[in-house]
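If your schedule permits, I should be very grateful for your opinion on a structural question. Please examine both parts with care and let me know of anything in them that strikes you as inconsistent. The record follows directly beneath this note:
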Amino acid sequence: MGTKAKVSFWVWKFESDSINRTYPMQVSEEAIVTRVQSLVQSGLSRVPPQYIQPLHARPLHHAPPGSDSDSDSDSDSVPVIDLSLFDPTARASSLDAIARACRDWGAFHVTNHGVPPSLLAAVRRAGLQFFSDCPLPDKLRYACSPSAASEGYGSKLLATSDGDTASHVLDWRDYFDHHTLPLSRRNPNRWPDFPSDYRDTVATYSDEMKLLAQKLLALISESLGLPPSCIEDAVGEFYQNITISYYPPCPQPDLTLGFQSHSDIGAITLLIQDDVGGLQILKDRHNWVTVHPFSDAILVLLADQTEIITNGKYRSCVHRAITNPDRARLSVATFHDPAKTVKISPASELIDESSPAKYRDVVYGDYVSSWYTKGPEGKRNIDALVLDS
């Protein structure tokens, strides 16, 4: 992403099993960032200050009257779309269901999606074995640099920017990011070889997710009355990353987030999680709804570039991950993004005198740089592209 910069973060000094003190320092990109799993294994009982969210962002922050931060009612359940129903007799109603989900939620579960349940289980199992059973020195062989969007094993995702306290707060998670598509980016030698089927499992999963993402973008396009290829043509060749996130148990879950509130920057994200749960979606701008684990289903999250292409008719999904005091959680997110040179703009078919363009054009690489340096903070990056009406 251009010139490499110094990044600033807190370094923890350990003595025996306890944290002695903290001190800020400047380190190069090659320095190793403290892993959250290591902090937990040290036996700490309080969350270090750099992981404590500001009051307004904490998961137990008081919601507006009448809202519910974790509702189980049917009206506050993420929609479920059965892809087997897309036959000629039910296609119109199924497309209507996708349109409602994209308009009201920016997210939906898909079932009968064609991805073998055994593969979903295998990729979850491979990720869990890497984080749970692989010794830290072996994990660190695959450590990524603290720079934004680098491949490998890491903990700190965002580059640090000045003047924004929230962007300095760290998420309570470790992760492994895989560059999987196009094939010129895919190098399984950079991925763990433990367990023994890890690399083959991730590669196979990548190929299946690409096919599903193409199918879903075609259906989303059709639900707007657009040609099936419209959104995929605007995105171009997929740049796909697969991120396996591991959220260790947290001694003070009311102070932290596993992943801060954000919408994804690309076109479409496909996510699976284990049975622990912890993913939340922001509904109607103030209501955090917990996405309960749904066996063998895949969660579809619309991302920012799709919001731009659909001219705001469909909104990208704001979501976050909360932490658990007792159990570790694992999720696998597959991101499908444009190349950094692609210019994204609203689809011409959706613009006329009565419905002018709502977003200015943006080169995707510029959008990525803004997201990683300023931090996500909900949808502030895409909101910066909104044209004055």
Notes: DSSP finds nine helices and 16 strands in the chain. The CA atoms of residues 30 and 145 lie 5 Å apart. The two ends are 33 Å apart (CA to CA). The chain has a mean pLDDT of 86.
